[in-house]
Write a structure and sequence with these properties.
The chain is mainly beta. The protein has 2 domains: 1-48, no CATH class; 56-207, Jelly Rolls (Sandwich). It has strands at 5-6, 12-13, 15-18, 21-24, 56-58, 62-65, 82-103, 114-119, 142-148, 154-156, 159-182, 197-207. The mean pLDDT is 89.
Length: 209
């Protein structure tokens, strides 16, 4: 059997004869509705997005301890919960984070040691809390916990920052929840009326889906 078939109106159709079966040959074109931008060829390829999505994303600076927050003492007290919106439902990996400390009153900029927790469900922690939920329910939602040391801060008279490179994979989530736990006797946040200390967090993550 030879390639190609002919319709009853004698119009020829291009085909490929494979084991006595005709398979139609189709020529691709592209363009917006009602237009023809030409046949697809090496010099006129189909338009594709070279970057299907932004692979590295930033959450943005989010408050952990505000200037009006309850005191966060060194007895293992927690900060508020920071809701870190990912901008969509993604899986991926937290690559790094930065803690930013500053003072809006007359107290000292705090640069103590502690632990940064990341959760896949809201732990409902508020500044000054000393524990998570009963029977370990919130502990089971931890996806990462990173200790930070006092000597890791870079500080000047106007504030301080602590940057950490990490590797914390997470499943498909729209929000990751962060909490800071203070464990440093030399760092007490908002200990009196003149102290208006603030702690913020920013996170960078790789989107995998």
């Amino acid at each position: 059997m030879v390639d190609n078939v002919t319709s009853p109106t004698a119009t020829a159709f291009a085909t490929d004869d494979i084991s006595s079966v005709h398979y139609p040959r189709i020529k691709l074109i592209h363009g917006a509705d009602g237009t023809n931008d030409g046949d697809v060829a090496n010099t006129n390829p189909l338009p594709v997005s070279s970057t299907p999505f932004a692979a590295i994303l930033e959450v943005g600076l989010t408050e952990l301890i505000g200037e009006d927050s309850t005191t966060v003492a060194a007895s293992g007290e927690y900060s508020n919960t920071a809701d870190l919106s990912l901008g969509g439902t993604y899986s991926g990996e937290i690559l790094s984070f930065v803690l930013v400390s500053h003072e809006n009153g007359s107290g000292a900029v705090q640069t103590g040691k502690g632990v940064v927790f990341f959760f896949d469900a809201d732990p409902n922690v508020s500044a000054g809390d000393t524990d998570l939920a009963l029977i370990g329910a919130e502990h089971a939602t931890i996806v990462g916990m990173i200790p930070v040391e006092a000597d890791e801060w870079d500080a000047d008279a106007n504030g301080a920052a602590l940057f950490k490179t990490v590797a914390i994979p997470f499943h498909a989530l729209a929000t990751i929840f962060a909490v800071y736990r203070n464990t440093d006797s030399a760092a007490v946040w908002n200990s009196d009326g003149a102290d208006n200390e603030v702690l913020d967090i920013n996170v960078w993550f790789r989107r995998d889906s």
